[in-house]
Design brief:
With 394 residues, the chain is mainly beta. The protein has a domain of 169 residues. The protein is built from four helices and 27 strands. The longest helix is centred in the N-terminal third of the chain and has 9 residues. The chain is globular, with a radius of gyration of 26 Å. The termini are far apart. The N terminus is likely disordered.
């Protein structure tokens, strides 16, 4: 009986068809596909109301991923994709130099005329909410001795100025008297109440932004105009580092004070690489694993040493209820969360970065339930719900 069954089955040959299908590997980060060509080199990602303001090579564009938002209904998912009008004023493209990062906040951005602020005395101020021909800030009308706005061209961590939450812009400039024992700043209040932009090409007409400016002269013991300067906006004031001379706090009324003692006897940050405010405390990172903290808006500081030196290569952001850092200028850049266990102890935990390749990181922002990362090879996104998954140890 067994032999009969075997004989019977041997007469039928059943062929099972195998289908080989290549499955694309799923990465933690996925690229926003709407950015094309050189737009994929993203220098800045700044959240606004239901939008992301993007500085990329030669362009300012707006990403509107939130369903039902006013911007998305009017102009689509991304203004640079070609289906809608670009948000870049065509007569004044953004800088083509990847080192030339401009001052930007949710409401305004500032563009150097002629693509190179280092040789010019005119800045153009644009609102982010609509296409507009911009309003010129003419430096020589404020100071006839001015020769140029300052710009050290040092990339995404060091824009040539800053705009605070109250829409005040602060930039530095040089004059004909480089031997003067002082350096110079321009503080401008930016206001735009218009509902539509001015798109006329008549250069004699102003844009829709009102700009009121004042000059600030900060004395120093010796000439300081050629010293490197970096800018940070903190709440309603600014911090300016002038190399070789100190850290200065600039208020919206134009008043200023040095807030790190003296250069020879520092009681606060020296050559800070990043400054930010987190849960009421101002943090300043310094090379060599040093951190300074202030609980009274820079009136006094506490120095803490012995931290990971990678903190001095990072910028910092709020994601959800947590503090997140990204490194810059490293072949294998990292994204990590920081948790302060006590006043002197930080726990760093690296989160997943697969899918990003070897791109240099530029900026990070959260919008709604998604985290976005700007890089030199694209804008990437990751759901907030999975963002804090730890990177596997090698």
């Amino acid at each position: 009986m067994v032999g009969t069954l075997l004989a019977g089955t041997a007469c039928r040959k059943e062929v099972e068809k195998l289908v080989v299908q290549e499955v694309e590997k799923q990465h933690s980060w996925t690229e926003v596909k709407h950015l094309i060509n050189y737009q994929r080199n993203v220098l800045q990602v700044v959240p606004g109301t239901n939008i992301l303001n993007l500085q990329s090579i030669g362009r300012f564009e707006v990403l509107s991923p939130i369903s039902g938002s006013v911007e998305k209904e009017a102009n689509g998912y991304y203004t640079g994709f070609g289906h809608t009008l670009s948000r870049t004023w065509f007569l004044n493209p953004m800088p083509w130099d990847v080192r030339n990062v401009v001052p930007m906040n949710a409401n305004f951005y500032v563009n150097p005329t002629g693509d190179n602020v280092a040789s010019d005395t005119v800045l153009t101020i644009y609102p982010t909410k609509f296409l507009d021909r911009g309003t010129r800030l003419r430096l020589r009308k404020l100071d006839p001795t001015a020769t140029r706005f300052e710009n050290s061209l040092l990339g995404t961590r060091f824009p040539f100025g800053a705009i605070n939450r109250s829409d005040y812009l602060l930039c530095g400039y040089r004059t004909t008297d480089l031997a003067e024992n002082a350096f110079h700043l321009v503080l401008s209040q930016l206001v735009n109440t218009a509902t539509t932009g001015s798109t006329t090409t008549n250069t004699t007409l102003p844009g829709t932004t009102q700009v009121s400016s004042r000059l600030i002269r900060i004395p120093t013991p010796s000439p300081s105009q050629l010293s490197f300067k970096s800018f940070w906006a903190v709440d309603d004031y600014f911090l300016v580092w002038c190399a070789g001379f100190g850290l200065f706090k600039i208020k919206e009324d134009g008043s200023f004070q040095q807030v790190n003692g003296t250069f020879t006897q520092a009681t606060g940050p020296v050559s800070p690489t990043a400054i930010f405010k987190w849960k009421g405390v101002v943090y300043a990172m310094q090379t060599g694993g040093t951190m300074w903290t202030s609980v009274n808006d820079c009136a006094s500081w506490q120095r803490l040493d012995g931290f990971n030196s990678g903190l001095s290569l990072s910028t910092f952001y709020q994601v959800g209820d947590s503090l997140v850092g990204i490194t810059h200028g490293v072949i294998t850049n990292s994204i990590y969360s920081l948790k302060f266990l006590n006043a002197n102890t930080i726990r760093l935990r690296e989160v997943k970065n697969d899918g990003l390749g070897y791109a240099d990181f530029s900026d990070l922002a959260q919008l709604g339930d998604t985290v976005y990362l700007g890089t030199t090879s694209g804008l990437y996104k990751r759901p907030l719900t999975s963002f804090f998954e730890s990177k596997a140890k090698p």
